[in-house]
Design a protein that fits this description.
It contains six helices and five strands, in the order H-H-H-E-H-E-H-E-H-E-E. By secondary structure, it is α/β, with parallel strands linked by helices. It has a five-stranded parallel β-sheet with strand order 1-2-3-4-5. Helix 4 links the parallel strand 1 and strand 2. The relative contact order is 0.10.
């Protein structure tokens, strides 16, 4: 279901109305500020040797996700396979699921959406890699994987290349030894 679904007809009629006319709870955005923030994001990323893949956990909105991609993001990050499915079903084509996807229901959904878009999922064990491989093989899709490496611990997923239904593997990790100085003005992005 997307924003064009007839169920949302009455909600769309509220767009542009005064705030006190909108029933709560409701997400109210100042689209000019959103667009300014997206331009600022793109401007700051332009000089960096990195690409931006924003997380959708704040907005969970395919419409805002599309705006982020149109502003230069290489794709989006989600926390769950269900969030990823909503983004893919809305037409977004490059999603990273930053958590492990385990269990037959979730891996089947991941394999389904991987047949429609480039979807990368984190793995941290040979068991989860095997689950994803089997689900992708059944669905005749390909799932990209990213091996989550904890500092000082490498998971037992070394034979990644032997799994069917996997397109490519990369590594992801978190380094917590030196926290960033939150007072450093170069590290602060002011959102209006």
């Amino acid at each position: 279901m997307n924003a064009d679904h007839p169920r949302f007809r009455s909600a769309r009629q509220l767009i542009g109305q005064p705030r006190d006319q909108v029933p709560t709870p409701a997400l109210i955005l100042d689209i000019r500020r959103v667009q300014a923030n997206l331009r600022e994001m793109a401007s700051r990323m332009a000089s960096l040797p990195a690409a931006l893949r924003p997380h959708t956990k704040i907005h969970k909105s395919p419409a805002l996700g599309k705006m982020q991609v149109e502003a230069g993001a290489i794709g989006l990050t989600t926390a769950t396979v269900w969030e990823a499915g909503a983004m893919v079903d809305a037409g977004l084509t490059d999603i990273l699921i930053a958590n492990q996807v385990v269990g037959p229901v979730k891996t089947a959904e991941l394999a389904r959406i991987a047949g429609q878009a480039t979807v990368t999922a984190a793995v941290d064990s040979a068991v989860s890699l095997t689950e994803l491989s089997e689900a992708a093989t059944r669905a005749k899709s390909r799932i990209d994987v990213i091996v989550e490496v904890s500092r000082g611990r490498v998971p037992a997923v070394r034979p990644v290349h032997r799994h069917r239904g996997r397109r490519r593997a990369r590594h992801m990790g978190y380094h917590w030894s030196k926290p960033a100085d939150h007072r450093d003005p170069r590290r602060i992005l002011h959102i209006q």
